[in-house]
Each structure stands twice: as C-alpha cells, then as structure tokens.
Specification:
Blueprint: E1 3-6, E2 18-21, H1 46-55, E3 59-65, H2 67-70, H3 76-91, E4 99-103, H4 119-127, E5 136-139, H5 142-149, E6 154-158, H6 163-173, E7 180-183, H7 186-201
Length: 202
C-alpha cells in the first residue's frame, strides 16, 4: 500500500480516534491532477482545523486517490514534490499529517486501495491503531463517505472541491444517518465532529 509518510513517534500507541482526510478539494484547492508544487494552495482555515483536531486527540491521516499516476498524467516525482510543498505549508502553521496514504491506480486496475475500497483504512490501522467508533472520513466525494461507512466510521462531505455536485447523492444514499453529514468545509467538519463527541459523552 503506497504510504507517503508516517511519523516514527506515532507507532506502538494506544488506539484513539482518527480523522481521515482526502487531499484535493478538502485540504488544498483542487487543480485537477495537481502536479505542480507551485499550485498547491491550502484552503481557508484548514491548518487551524487540523490543529484543533490534533489537540482534541485525533490522528490526522491522509487518504487520497491519485489516479493521475496510473493514467500517466504525472510522475511519482511530481507527486512527491506536491506532497512536500503541502507538508511545508502545513508545517508553517504548526501542524502535519501523522501518516498519508494514497492509491496510485487508475480506475479499472485491480487494487483494494482506490476509494471507496477500504485498503487504505485497513493499512492505516496496522501503523496507527485507531478506534472505528469515533473516527471519521472527510472528503469532497461520495466515495469518501462510503469509505468511512463501510468500516463503521462517520462520513462527512464538504462542499469545497467536488462536494457541491455530490451533496444530493450523498443525502439520498444515507437519509437520516446521524454519522453522515454535509458541511461547507473542513473547519465546519471538525467542529461538527467535536460536537458529536461531546454529545456522546454527555
């Protein structure tokens, strides 16, 4: 399973809640097969939201389909340069991913990691032990929500990126599910998750 990074100090820890984040359209602006590090732009409030989740005790784990690799649109060196720029921008605001997984396959290839298939979640659990109940997947596509729900995690669609076009389908697929929500962006998603946690504790 392709792994961009894993912080060595995060291994062999007690299980805790995890926040799984899609990349393009959620953390950074979607540039459609982003391959140029100079085009990496954090979305408003994202670093602060990630830091808030980190301070609340969540793992921060990236899970991203990168079919541009499998399609031959950009190279692994391009991908690494984009990821390094993203990490640098986040680090400037005092936060980073604990781990980042990505699927390099094109649609139709045989793999178990292209969302909504659960390979990245399963691989993450081997490195960063997390609790299914209390963990969430946040993304801008229905496949992100589906990824979470098939493993018992909450799923939140953000309206940034492709989210607006997917909102109706998500709400129709999971009507009335208290662990599925649609919000404007990652800051609102983190606030909702923390409120959900407080509600369960009360």
């Amino acid at each position: 399973m392709p792994l961009w990074k894993s912080h060595p100090s995060t291994t062999s820890q007690e299980p805790k809640d995890a926040l799984f984040l899609d990349r393009d359209g959620v953390v950074n602006a979607d540039r459609h097969y982003l391959a140029d590090p100079d085009q990496v732009e954090l979305l408003p409030g994202v670093a602060e939201a990630m830091l808030k989740a980190r301070q609340a005790g969540f793992w921060l784990i990236g899970v991203s389909n990168q079919s541009g690799l499998g399609r031959g649109i950009f190279t692994h060196d391009d991908f690494k340069a984009v990821m390094q720029r993203l990490e640098d921008l986040l680090a400037q605001q005092g936060v980073s991913f604990d781990a980042f997984f990505y699927c390099p396959h094109a649609p139709g290839e045989s793999c178990d990691c292209r969302k909504p298939l659960p390979g990245m979640l399963d691989e993450a659990k081997k490195i960063l032990p997390y609790k299914d109940s209390g963990s969430w997947v946040v993304g801008d596509k229905k496949s992100d929500v589906a990824l979470g729900r098939q493993r018992g995690l909450g799923g939140i669609l953000v309206r940034t990126g492709y989210g607006i076009s997917q909102e109706e389908d998500v709400l129709r697929t999971w009507p009335g599910d208290p662990t599925v929500s649609v919000v404007d962006g990652l800051p609102e998603a983190v606030d909702l998750i923390l409120r959900h946690r407080e509600g369960e504790a009360s």
